[in-house]
Amino acid sequence: MTARVHRAADLNAAAEHGAAPSRWPVPAWWDALARSSAAATVALSSARVSVLSNNPRVIEELVGYLGGKAVAARSASGPDPDWTVGIVDTPEPVSDGIGGEPVVLHDFGPDTVAGTRSEQHPGVFVDADGQLVIVDAATRRIIIAGRYRAGSLYPHREAALTGIAHEIVRHLLRLRLEYQGGLVVHASAVSLQEEAVLIVGDKRAGKSTLSTALLLHGDADYLAGDRVFVWPLADRSGWLAAGWPTALRLNPGTVSIFAGLRAVADAARHAPAAPAGRKLHIWPADIPGVLARPVRRSAVVTTVLFLGTETGQPSTEVREISRERALPLLASNLLTPHDPHHPNWLDLPRPSDGELSTARAAFLDQLGGPLRLLELPVCGWTEPALRTQVAAVLGKLRRTDQPPRHAAQSPAGSPAEAGTLGTVSVVGSARGPLVLPGAPSAAVPPPGHDGGEPRQAPRRAAPTEEPTEGGPSDRHPTTGQEVH
Fold first, then answer.
1. Do the Cβ atoms of 373 and 323 come closer than 8 Å?
2. What is the DSSP letter of 247?
């Protein structure tokens, strides 16, 4: 069951009258969080979400989820946030006996995650892992509170709190971008010379396979694995694209194509608590180390590349297609106004369906004009075939005369040179097995290690990334990513 439309009005009315549930110490929580130094500000376009916690590791894990691509600052400097999310790690069982009706947090068939909405208190939810969520729309504040429980979906208490926080932050960014005329596209995306290429196709058409080939063999930067935020530039002259903060998920068939990734996947399969048959998940924070490519915050959309589902040998050429052919292919992959997998379970106000449909029409109007339309009828299924296709894509985009930007800058032994072709090691993390380049050390559990808390890996340089606000900061203990 998805969220009811009228709940947003109920929530605003309750918040405006100060109807915060008395059974939970919300004011005391906020006072304690305000004194905490564990904080981050997530920014995308003009959307800003500040996150506070009384447990610094929660913030570290959240930054690891986001990969640093949207983390702007650790302080309260700069514009006021659109929303503030407080994460309270408490030993008390705050959500027991809440009752209410079920609500779907996100729905991927067998991976559906359901929560509960309180019928007594508007704006109060409990997620699948028992974490309490209290939404105050009037003050634009959200409290997440809970403790680690036996049988949790996550390996430790910080991970349990981070899991729901990540979902909420992503949800808030999407809503804010929708008010700017933005929308969500079902696509993979890479950046070539700071220009975004959206790769659109049906399930199993090869989106992740081709985007991975462009990362490994085409000097591309990573933007998105499966969903893309797009929103208009301020002067309406074009559209920006940014990745929906999530992992690059590669199925075993795709992994088996690339010699370097096979070593990574083999190490991950022997990591602590690695699920059998699971896709290889490479989170944005880990992509620079595993794939030796940077993660970009955003890039201007210049090209949409459609992957066909024709049978036969992999295509040897990339061809231009007409706007008439491209229009239905792209329209069916626009997840705005309705994304069936990610409903508005927080019941927060969003633009009307009419306004969101106008945004769809504005983006589709770019087809055949500012947006170049290309098609690759059959994706490759061997590494040599994909190398040929990558060369064809770059040639069609007139990039064959441009040398790789990073090859000459990589000193011997750096990830950009060794990458996944070198030795890999695995550590435990809230996001699952974390694969790092380099030989295992005493601080890193070797393949086959089967217990204990996640251990720290040797620290390594932060990935190449756009400048962020603020001064020096600590680094994530497992990824080496800066924690703001």
1. yes
2. -
Sorted by sequence, the CB contacts under 8 Å of residue 267 that are 6+ apart come out as: 424, 425, 426, 433, 435, 447
Does residue 303 surpass a pLDDT of 60? yes
Place of tokens 């929303």: 83
Domain ranges for the chain: 7-178, 182-249+294-408
Beta strands, E only, 187-278: 188-192, 195-200, 221-224, 227-232, 239-243, 248-250
Residues 216, 458, 285: CA angle, nearest 5 degrees: 45
> Which pair of structure tokens corresponds to residue 384?
């040599």
What is the Rg, in whole angstroms, of the alpha carbon atoms belonging to the chain?
22
- What is the CB neighbour count within 10 angstroms for residue 484? 21
Higher pLDDT, residue 145 or 70:
145
How far CA 112 is from CA of 315, 342, 350, in Å, comes to 36, 10, 23
Helices (H), 88-221: 157-179, 207-217
pLDDT digit string, tens, across residues 103-153: 888 887 766 778 899 888 889 998 877 889 999 999 999 999 987 665 555
Global model pTM greater than 0.90: no
CB 248 within 8 A of CB 258: no
Q: Rounded to 5 degrees, what are φ and ψ at 276?
A: -70, 135
pLDDT in tens, 117-127: 988 888 999 88
Report yes or no: 98 and 118 within 8 Å, Cβ to Cβ: yes
Task: Provide the residue count of the chain.
Answer: 484
Which range among 83-92, 172-181, 432-441 shows the weakest confidence by mean pLDDT? 432-441
Domain spanning 182-249+294-408: which CATH class is it, in words? alpha beta
> 3-state DSSP call for residue 56?
helix
Backbone angles phi, psi at 190, to 5 degrees: -130, 165
Provide the β-strand partners of residue 124: 134
Distances in Å between the Cα of 2 and the Cα atoms of 7, 67, 76, 340, 360 are: 11, 30, 35, 10, 23
SS3 418: helix
Is residue 219 scored above 70 in pLDDT? yes
Q: Which residue has the higher pLDDT, 367 or 435?
A: 367
